[in-house]
Amino acid sequence: MMGELMAGTNVGGDFTLTDSRGRRFRLADQRGRYVLLYFGFTGCPDVCPTDLLAIGDALRELGADGPKVQPVFVTLDPRRDTRAVIGAYVANFHPAFVALTGSEAEVRRVASLYKVSFDKVPLPTAGFYTIDHAAFTFLLGRDGKYIGYFPPGTPPERMAALIRDEMRKS
Prior knowledge:
Elements: E1 16-19, E2 24-26, E3 34-40, H1 47-61, E4 69-75, H2 83-91, E5 98-101, H3 104-113, E6 118-122, E7 129-133, E8 137-140, E9 146-150, H4 156-169
Parallel strand pairs: 3-4, 4-5
Antiparallel strand pairs: 1-2, 1-5, 3-8, 6-7, 8-9
């Protein structure tokens, strides 16, 4: 059923990228917290902002448990999504968001760890492109390991309920 936390195997892994303030962000440094990990780009017209809003709303829905979850946005368009751009972008959805970037090769390596496919798609206007990408919200456990993913459009209330269920298990 759509909206459920979807499990799988052989997904994820540790990584290091640069945050919007220029500091190195290591997933390993998040041990002890759950992580909601999302890959997208700031020029995305609909899916990314909708899913990021749902993540922010899910964190608010968690109330006192919200700070136990670190939301992370990784840009799939590091060429256009500068550190300043991604920092301002994620601030629109929740103040706890961390926005990450890196070289195109670094970003592709991290995306491949999570089986996130993406491609630049040229637009009719010369020099312009969009990014076609998989849009999943990954839930990582307090140990940094992949638990499962939420499909696009998962309601924030359902996301929060499933995160709470995972919290109760550990």
